[in-house]
């Protein structure tokens, strides 16, 4: 079993509504949309409030000031993760750049024991 699956099964994975929306956006076939839509259904969306959005905007500005391009969705993910002090599980290389200037942690997969 891969590490992501283990985290999900162990209830150690969280999601916000924007991640759900971003995951489902751009899917052309209705069947594919429905199939993927039901996969993250086991996750309750974490509540996101005004402070999270304001922190995301500050994060965006902080990245921009250091020459790092960012997206609103990525900054919201970073904001919520920073507030909850949880690591971000991602394959998006942009988060490596964000971590250079933001108070975020990235999930590092455990190395297999030999």
Topology:
Blueprint: H1 3-9, E1 15-16, H2 17-24, H3 30-38, E2 45-46, H4 50-65, H5 72-84, E3 87-88, H6 94-98, E4 105-106
Parallel strand pairs: 1-2, 3-4
Helix pairs in contact: 4-5
Describe the structure.
- The longest helix is centred in the middle third of the chain and has 16 residues, at 50-65.
- The model has no long low-confidence stretch (mean pLDDT 89).
- 51% of the residues lie in helices and 7% in strands.
- The protein has a single domain, classed as Rossmann fold, CATH 3.40.50.1010.
- The strands form two sheets. The chain has a two-stranded parallel sheet.
- The radius of gyration is 15 Å and the shape is globular.
- With 114 residues, the chain is mainly α.
What's the short story on this structure?
This protein has helices at 3-9, 17-24, 30-38, 50-65, 72-84, 94-98, and strands at 15-16, 45-46, 87-88, 105-106. The protein has 114 residues and is mainly alpha-helical. The strands form 2 sheets. A two-stranded parallel sheet has the order 1-2. It has a two-stranded parallel sheet with strand order 3-4.
Mean pLDDT: 89
Main beta sheet: strand number and arrangement?
Answer: 2 strands, parallel
| N/C terminus separation | 17 Å
Got a strand count?
4
Number of H/I helices: 6
Provide the CATH top-level class. Answer: Alpha Beta
Topology pattern, helix = H, strand = E: HEHHEHHEHE
Portion in strands = 5-15%
- In CATH, the architecture is 3-Layer(aba) Sandwich
CATH superfamily: 5'-nuclease
Protein structure class: mainly alpha
Radius of gyration: 15 Å
Helical amount among residues, as a percent range? Answer: 40-55%
Main-sheet strand order equals: 1-2
Unreliable runs? none
Shape: globular
Q: Which topology does CATH recognise?
A: Rossmann fold
How many separate structural domains?
1
């Amino acid at each position: 079993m891969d590490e992501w699956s283990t985290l999900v099964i162990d209830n150690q994975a969280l999601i916000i509504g924007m991640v759900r929306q971003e995951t489902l956006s751009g899917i052309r076939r209705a069947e594919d949309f429905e199939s993927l839509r039901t996969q993250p259904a086991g996750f309750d969306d974490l509540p996101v409030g005004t402070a999270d959005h304001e922190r995301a905007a500050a994060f965006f500005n902080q990245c921009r000031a250091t020459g790092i391009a960012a997206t609103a969705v990525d900054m919201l993910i970073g904001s919520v993760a920073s507030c909850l002090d949880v690591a971000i599980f991602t394959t998006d290389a942009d988060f490596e750049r964000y971590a250079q200037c933001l108070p975020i942690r990235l999930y590092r997969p455990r190395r297999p024991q030999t």
